Amino acid sequence: MTHAVSLLLQVADPQLPPSSEMFILFGLIKAGVAFGIYMLCVAYTTLLERRVAGWIQDRIGPNRVGPQGLLQPIADGVKNFMKEEALPGGANKALFVLAPALAFIPAMITWAVIPFASPLPIPGVGLVSMAVADLPVGFLFVLAISSLGVYGITIAGWSSNNKYALLGGLRASAQMISYEIAMGMSTVCVLLLAGNVNLNEIVAQQQGQTWNVVMLTLAFFIFAVAALAETNRVPFDLPESESELVAGYHAEYSSMRYSMFPLAEYANIITSSGLMVTLFFGGWDIPFTHWDNTAPWTAMKTLVTLGAYFAKVFFFVFSFIWIRWTVPRFRYDQLMSLGWKILLPMALVYITAVASLVLALDAAGLGRTSYGFRGAFLGMNVVFVVLVFWVLDRGRIVSPAFSRTERERLARMRLGATRSDLLTGKGA
Amino acid sequence: MQPNQFHPLAYSFAFYFFGLTAIASAIAFVTRKSPVAAAMWLVNVMFSLAGLYVMLDAQFIGAIQILVYTGAIMVVFLFVIMLLNLGHASELADARGRWGKILALFVGIALLAEVMALNRGDTVQRMIPPDLAAKAAAAAATPVAGGIIGPVAAPLFKEYLLAFELTSVLLLAAIVGAVVLGKRRTDAR
After folding, report:
1. For the whole model, what pTM was predicted?
2. How much of chain B is helix, strand and coil, in % rounded to 5?
3. Tens of pLDDT along A283-307?
4. Which of B5, B75, B145 sits opposite A173 (nearest CB)?
């Protein structure tokens, strides 16, 4: 007791890290606050999705429950809790109940390591890092935990004892394994530049140099595509494609257990957006100024950088929704060939190029923050962007829907031959 | 964070929590008849081991344990189990038989006895190189660039580069072999 009192009375420098007791206390507070805000964001992303979908499709969307439909997520939650929970016959009960939690928890834990603002000085306590847990393995933790998300979906599909659900679950696991590789490979470039896996260090590197999206546009592109696939969003929502698999892996689920899967999806969207911002868009950095990322730290800086971070994350969440209501679904073989034959080799070539350039520039004695270093990366980036996006045309990289049709037949289709001509082979 | 920075009570609580979870899950893993349930228990074992690694201040190994074993290998296991469609768990007979079980029991007891005997004497202590503690202290005192990954990456890509590359080639050969075997079967059909 006296120990605790003496600790509280002790005047700590707010610009230095806190003592370990205070570290644990503030860790708990941060975890609680972050969890609450995160859950609120997940709930309201569902509303955002429906309102944006309405806007894109030129209709109104849910606007009746509360002002502008703001109470809709709460009404949905209450409805889901009140509904009957169905347990299909022949289902593996334990795993059937466990699966929704397995899908939801990894999406949520991943958020724990992402830094969301500049450190906050609290008088008498010290400098509190604005990430729930600033782990030294930061980014590896993200990769490790997000790789667990696949279990929820696979187990849900298997335990339902339903062939559509099983097919959905198998598709999901194949898809997530495939795109995890491309995703991991694309981030290797970021780690090469940062020289560290700690997310705070990666943010600091981008503050010192430039945002990674400017230096490594291709890596960002691969990461964004893989993130879309990892979250099972359109155009990669093959695991739950209604036209083939009823509702896919959650076909047998009802009430709140069902609700956990969409919630996990939205949680994943927010986490992926947060990661994209942290890895490629400078995290909580405010561009064109060093005011926000130099000591002395103030509460004002924390607030402003928090705002900047939220604005960036909101942009990506919005983009996810925007893409969903714009792009049609891929075919399954297109999905697999995009992951394995295009994104993975592209990422590997890119890693080699980035690693060689870093090595060459380091050998040339150019500092990481020097204009020469940044200029060289900018130059290489322009070359790669032109190369890839010049070649990246429908039908040349991603095989389009008509890829199985022969060339001549395609030419005839384009010339405007009638459907019956094509079927009977007339005019061949 | 060093282990000694933790409260000793919290440290032992975490140790027994992860340790007992790992043991209980391992027992459940070998006794479940449903292959999927067994696989999920194995996932739990891997996860608990990762927790123990982190407690030993090996966060990198902990993260890699989850990433590689839990996130990749076990997912593929599960995938294969589901595709094989082994039938209902209750229909699966235990392939080992009574004598196999008795033999396994004796082997298990012998192993346990060996571990206990090793722990009683100073055998383990004598197996540790005498300069290990000094080496570890020296390594901890010299900061390596690259945060927590640096101390692992530097020897891996300098001292043990040849072994690393040979392992890579071996793994590549295994992948190519698997593809060739898979292809041959579809051609024959």
Report:
1. 0.81
2. 80, 0, 20
3. 888 887 777 777 777 888 888 888 8
4. B75
